[in-house]
Fold:
Amino acid sequence: MNNSSKPSVIIAMSHGREREAMAAEFSEQGWASHICSSGEVIMDHIKHRPGPHILLLDTDLSGSDTEQLLESLRELGRRIAILLVTDRHTANMAGVWAELGAWGYLIKPVSWARLWMYMDHIAEHFAALAERDALRAFSAAQAGAPPAGVFISESMKQARALARELGAAGAPMLISGESGSDKRPLAREAHLASAFRSGPFIAVDCAAYEPEDLDAALFGAEPQDIGDTAPAHPGALECATGGALFLNEITALSPFAQERLAERLRGPEPALLAVAATSASLALEVGRGRFDASLFRLFGAASIVVPPLRDRPEDVPALARAALTRAPMPPARRPALTDEAADLLASYYWPGNERELRIVVERAAMRATGPALTHEDILPLLSRHVSQPASPPGCYVFPNPAAPLCDVEKAFLSEALRHFNFHRERTARSLGITRKTLYTKIKQYDIVADFVRKSEALEQS
Structure:
């Protein structure tokens, strides 16, 4: 390992002579070292330097505050390996120190042979992490970067330019847009323009988790007791350190998770680029008491709006072709998209935005019998919406006054479920009812079975 790739060493010994002797030895061996004389100096040094670090911490220096200092260092979320230097009388605390993140311990007087063994192992560990991060970043950029030339509309060019500007600033940012609009490309633009571009891009679809599982996915999980067999795992927040964390549909976070996330993201020196996305109005959610005001202030200070797909039809053909290339089918069977079919897609309203476009294109590709998609392949998949034109955004078309109330309620619930892609938690929250009440109504009106029957009829038409 060359000297430039070695972690920096922080020497925190209780006696000045020991600190100077260790610093001279590390310098002779080609290691950069820094001397710290207190826990406050250690914390300040690590906060302002990304690392990785190796900390040699004398327990005589930290004293009774050793455990508190270890816990504070762990909460920083930086890559740091801690070697405690102690005497035989306090070595029985090694188990507690290990639980708080210590790598190991050395008994005074320090054995240089044992210390160099630790140093080599730690350096190899950090090198492996750096290689893993580079591979993750490369893989994420290749798999998720927006295809070149997909967005040709002026509104999306402006949105991408704003994403790059906000990403370079490094502060938490919010991407909002209608349900189904694809917000991830703008998050990737921000990541690639940020100081964290070489780090991983970690995406969490908050709406895809049950509330009790989402906290563990974001913050990690540890065994709750000795008999707990569930494996411990780091959360997305930790995995994204040094890179970007993309939280799609952030309103699905529990109140506790919102408060905890706001606390972790505060501070003058961010350890990652935080990007949130939502199809709801966060300001309204704050007013209704459903979203943490401090978290809204963090993300709401820098925001981007994704224009709805109906306002940029010039983007539709390229997006449709990109969806075709990712369709789950053998490449030999994948049909082409003719200009006539592209024009048909571009003329549609797309109330479900990019998500609906992707689904329609994939289903049309599965139905196609020829080498290219035709009107006949696409039109039946649009007729469900064409027969009932969408009302203007924010408006509600009152049903037939002569219809029975139960029919009106069933139609309204069906449309709400379809709008939220049958995500019941979000639908219930939008309607202001409990999830249990929504389940009861779905069963009462047989909504899911009715929807499946209509879909099958369309497929056979």
About this structure: Confidence is low (pLDDT under 50) at residues 140-146, 225-230, 383-396, 452-461. The first strand starts at residue 8 and ends at 12.
